[in-house]
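Task: encode each sequence below as C-alpha cells.

Item 1
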Amino acid sequence: MAEARPSLERALSVSHIQIEQSWVGEELHLTGPGASAQVALRAGLFVGRARLRPPASFFSSVIQNGFEDALRRAADEHDPLEKGQDD
C-alpha cells in the first residue's frame, strides 16, 4: 500500500469532497461532516467503504460519485497488477 499512498492521496485531494485524511496502518481513513470512510488495497484493488449521516447523507449520490471517481483516478495512476506487484 505504501506505493499506492501518493496516488490515492492525490486523487482524493482533487475531488470535490471536503475530507480529512489519516493513515491507520495500511488503511486510509477519511472523515468529513457526517461521513467516514476507509480505503485499503486488497489483492491489487482499491476497496472502499463509507458511512453517511446527515448532512452528508442528503448528498449521498454526489459523495458516492466523487469517492468512486477518486478511487478510479488512483487506480489508473497506480496499477500494481500491471507492474507485477500485489500488496
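Item 2
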Amino acid sequence: MWESISEITFAVIGISFIGGLVFFARYSEKKKWNKGVCPDCGSTLVLNGWMIDSQGGRGWTCPKSGCDYTAWVSYNIDKKAVQGN
C-alpha cells in the first residue's frame, strides 16, 4: 500500500493541513459570532430568515439602527440560539 516513508509523510502533512483549515474556519466563525452579541454596540444579534443560504449558513445581523454588523455562521456555534434555548 505505502511504498515509502515520503508517501506516509505527505499523507500525514495533507491530513494535518486539512484539519488545521477546518479548525481555523470554526474558530474564526466563533469569534465573529461573539456569543450572539454585537461587538460594536452590544445589542443581541437577530437571525434573519432571508439570510439562510442553500448550504445552511445563517446570517445574524445587529438590529440597532446605524449598526451594520453581520456574522455568517455555518457550524453549530449558534445551536442554542437557533433552538431558542
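Check on item 2: The mean pLDDT is 86. Helices lie at 5-33, 79-83.
End of task.
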